[in-house]
Amino acid sequence: MKNLTTLAVSAVLTICLFCTVQGSTAFAAAQFSDIYSSDELTAELTYLTDAGVIEGYSDGSFKPLNLINRAEFTKMVVAGVLGKKPSASEFSNCFQDVLNDWYAPYICYAKEEGWVEGYSGGVFEPEYEITKAEAVKITAEAYEWERLDTIDQSYFLDNQDESAWYIDYLLSAEERVLFDKLNVYLSPNELISRRWMAEFLYRAMNYGAGTPVEVRIVTYDNMEYQKQSYEDMLRTGIQPAYAPSSDFPANSQSGWSYGCYAFAVKSLLEFKYGMNLNISEVQDRIGWDGSFLWNETEAGNFAREYDIDLLFGYYAPAEYFFKKLSAGEPIILYIPYYIGSENVGHQVVAYSFDNDGVWISDSLQGGINREIPYTDVFVNGANYTLNVTELRRVKSGGEYKMQGY
User: Fold this and answer.
1) Which of 107, 200, 326, 374 is 20 to 30 A from residue 131's alpha carbon, by CA?
2) What are the pLDDT digits (tens) for 263-276?
3) What does pLDDT average to over the chain?
């Protein structure tokens, strides 16, 4: 548990085949059964449902963590954002795998407009989960965004490769202030969730209407973050996306005395992506001896083996911590853990908070959800945490990234 570095996880991804469910009833955002009342997404869902961009599922849920495929997102932009109703008789058979299916008119319309391209072999792969870069490209093409040239270089360290096909699309969205800036990595190949989709389309539509909206930003310049304490953040009225009573996975590390980080990763990926991580398998695949945390090599192996961007950093400011949880992004963090008088450290998942403290998924005591005081997160009066980890599912071959604060 001491001297923690990084970790990871595998599994089988549950795919949401229909983002806008055929034949379902549109629900007002306040009625989505799985959206917590304080979630910032509530207002965005109200806007998008009223605009006819999204619908809920027939059971009244929104399923914000479900991933979106290429067909679903294309339909949302064509029919929802732009209000187009392409004819099925006119728009069909545009790819070898897009014939007369429900999504054919939308994909074929987008192809004719030049917004989408297929893969080699003349296929579109409509049921592949869409990446962040692909989703931004379709939206940028649909809105005919041009570069504003207000920035010379991206804020994000992983969007600075001039040869990347997506760089100008992402820069165009960044210039229009459509991305959160809570850390220095964007993960262009991240597979997007319904939550991310809703936030992005809400911001893009408002920008198109001339009413830009605020995004979440943490400023790290000149150590300004050290001035913002957890008490300061609570006084702003910030609220978590998930309720303390949420049914968050809490896998037990029983039999793995030094496996707290691994089991925190297991619980987080189970919650976020429906993954079922086998710790023994991970141990074999990344060359981990099962003791303490993974070193940089092991973490890098995990990221590549399990298609995860693993973002690890030290001294995350209080503002980052609260804005992540308000954005519906649980994070792994270090808290003190004493055996006798010795602090050996412990890794848990933070998923919610209230005025009294932080709600965590803890792999000890058989795996439990419990509340800890803020002084266990912001130790010894500090205005920052010791270390944090984010995990993002990507299209293929993830990376271990050390982020600075």
Assistant:
1) 326
2) 999 999 999 999 99
3) 90
Q: State which fold the 222-403 domain adopts.
A: Cathepsin B; Chain A (3.90.70)
Q: What letter does residue 278 receive in the DSSP assignment?
A: -
Rounded distance, CA 256 to CA 290, Å? 8
Length of the chain: 405
DSSP code of 131?
A: B
Residue 10 above 70 pLDDT?
Answer: no
How far apart (Å, rounded) are the C-alpha atoms in residues 98 and 251?
41
Distance CA 233, CA 218 (A): 12
User: Which is nearest to 8 in space by CA: 388, 337, 306?
Assistant: 306
Residue ranges of the chain assigned to CATH 3.90.70.10: 222-403
Task: Return all residues near 274 (Cβ < 8 A) that are at least 6 apart.
Answer: 11, 12, 13, 14
Residue 15 has pLDDT above 60, yes or no: no
DSSP letter at 371 equals E
Residue type, 402: M
Q: 199-214 b/e with 16+ CB inside 10 Å = b?
A: bbbbbbbebbeeeebe
- In the sheet where 400-403 sits, what is the strand order? 368-373, 357-362, 346-353, 331-335, 387-393, 308-314, 400-403
Q: How many CB atoms lie within 10 A of CB 367?
A: 17
- Say what the pTM is: 0.90
Specify whether the CB–CB gap between 318 and 236 falls below 8 A: no
Q: Which of 64, 11, 78 has the alpha carbon at shortest distance from 34?
A: 64
Which value, to the nearest 10 degrees, does the dihedral of the CA atoms of residues 294, 297, 303, 306 take? -80
Whether residue 282 contacts residue 290, with contact meaning beta carbons closer than 8 Å, is answered with no
Tokens of 141: 């093409």
Please give the structure tokens belonging to residue 357.
């403290």
Which pLDDT does position 228 carry in this prediction?
87
Angle at 338 between CA 8 and CA 349, to 5 degrees: 30
Q: Tell me the HSE value of 271 on the side-chain side, using a 13 A CA sphere.
A: 24
Per DSSP, the residues of 148-188 read --S-SS-SSTTS--TT-TTHHHHHHHHHTT-S-BSSS---T
Degrees, nearest 5: CA angle 65-402-343: 90
- Whether residue 56 contacts residue 70, with contact meaning beta carbons closer than 8 Å, is answered with no
3-class secondary-structure state, position 190: strand
- CA atoms 318, 187, 304, 15: torsion sign: positive
